[in-house]
Amino acid sequence: MSVLLSSLFSAIKNSSMSHRQVKRDAIIERMLRTSLILIAAFALEAQTPAKPEPDTLILADGEKLIGHLVRSTGSTIRFKSDVLGEVSIDWSKVKELHSAQKFAVLTKEAAAAQEKVRGKGRPPAGVLEGNISVADEKIDVATTTGTTTVPIADAADVLDVGAYEKAFTRHPGFFSDWNGAITAGGSIVEATQTSKTFNESISLVRAIPAEDWLARRNRTTFDFSSSYGEQTQPGTPSIKTSIYHADAERDEYVSKAIFAFGQAQFDHNFSQGLDLQQTYVGGIGWSVFQRDNEGLDLKGGISFIEQQFAGATKTQNLASSVFDEKYMRKVFKGAIFTQEFSVSPSWTNSKALSALGNARLTLPVYKRLAVTIGAIDTFLNDPPPAFKRNSFQATAGLTYSLR
Q: Is the pLDDT of residue 135 over 80?
């Protein structure tokens, strides 16, 4: 339209018109352009979505919270209050809830049905979608066909309807949906003695699907940690510490809690005379529980281990069992405690027992940055002569969370 207006007014200006007519046409052109700008502005404003109305939560003691319902998981509701921020409240303490937003309500029956279509990427039957209101320990869902009432005791999850529908349409690639953290720390001392120590770790996990309310199909993890130190002094031999660990694991869930896993581990520990230990493991795992704030996994399997020690003329091959326990808990104000213990008794050499234990506490500092303190203990029952069986590390560093 602007091209048409320019052509039109150019023709007018080039014609033999009076000065008064040209001036009048210029005024009309400016008015038309201003009108077009106003029309475009109103159209853009009409397309901008309005801010959603706040939800109202009334507790049993009469306290009223204004904000937005985040989701509900079983017996707990997560509500983002305009004043208090995000809080978790037990359903038993909720008197009423009123929301103008649409949610998907998964009953326990629908959640069980979703378990049956594991890995097929389609929503289960019996999920209710619509506006909700809560009173008398019941959820009223205003669907397109009418209002359906669901007792709170029968509701497995209450989710934002947009996030619910998106979960069945997105197809993430291998490099998507990774979660984890990177930690680095160290110290340098320059005096009569020169001392340098560095430690770093990378921990990555990718669970498919990423949504914790969907039945998990598989999980991929990768971990790497290293600790290096060197101390030198004129006239004396230097002292070195060098410890590396790397592992990768793939879990395939056959039910909600049971999974088959395969894992590869690689270790080097100069402090124990271990040049390289390769471990290949296969077995069965059990996710005892997986909650928003807590998780526990138990694993057991068989492994092949190849050990090469400093000064040894040949490698040592072992057939072993592996028993592993891993625990995570969110303790306070976003702090996360993780702990793992693993032991590998050997069938082919009863003296070649190995074990690993570690614990870590991550304290949030600012947004994705946190401080992590931890301890790692590695045990080898048959190190070379003059080497200790235990290798203990205490670490501290700055952590960056990927999500």
A: yes
Residue of higher predicted confidence among 252 and 20: 252
In single-letter form, the type of residue at position 364 comes to P
Question: Is the Cβ–Cβ distance between 282 and 302 less than 8 Å?
Answer: yes
Question: Which residues 6+ apart lie within 8 Å of 17 measured at CB?
Answer: 25
Q: Which two tokens stand for residue 16?
A: 């033999």
Q: Is 191 exposed, middle or buried (0-12, 13-18, 19+ CB in 10 A)?
A: exposed
Residue 256's alpha-carbon distances to 53, 111, 259, 289, 369, in angstroms, are 37, 11, 8, 10, 33
Peptide bond into 209 cis (omega under 30): yes
Written as one string, the DSSP assignment of 61-129 is TS-EEEEEEEEEETTEEEEEETTTEEEEEEGGGEEEEEEEEEEEEEEHHHHHHHHHTTTS--PPTT-EE
Residues 6 or more apart whose Cβ sits within 8 Å of residue 372: 181, 183, 360, 361, 362, 363, 395, 396, 397, 398, 399
Q: Following CA atoms 217, 181, 290, 375 in sequence, which dihedral angle do they give, to the nearest 10 degrees?
A: 130
Pairwise CA distance, residues 328 & 290, whole Å: 9
Q: Work out the pLDDT band at 173, boundaries 50, 70, 90.
A: confident
Q: How far is CA 91 from the centre of its chain?
A: 26
pLDDT at 225 over 50: yes
pLDDT of residue 161: 87
pLDDT at 71 over 80: yes
Question: In the beta sheet, which residues pair with residue 16?
Answer: none
Which tokens go with 152? 């709170």
CA distances from 17 to 30, 339, 349 (A): 19, 89, 109
- Average pLDDT value for residue range 254-270: 94
Q: Are 197 and 187 in contact (CB under 8 A)?
A: yes
Residues 326 and 221: their CA atoms lie apart, in Å, by 13
Q: Per mean pLDDT, which of 17-31, 105-119, 181-195 is the most reliable?
A: 181-195
CA distances from 365 to 159, 292, 342, 399 (A): 30, 21, 31, 9
Looking at residue 178, its pLDDT comes to: 92
Only one residue has tokens 């998990």, namely 216
Residue 210 has φ and ψ, to the nearest 5°, of -75, -25
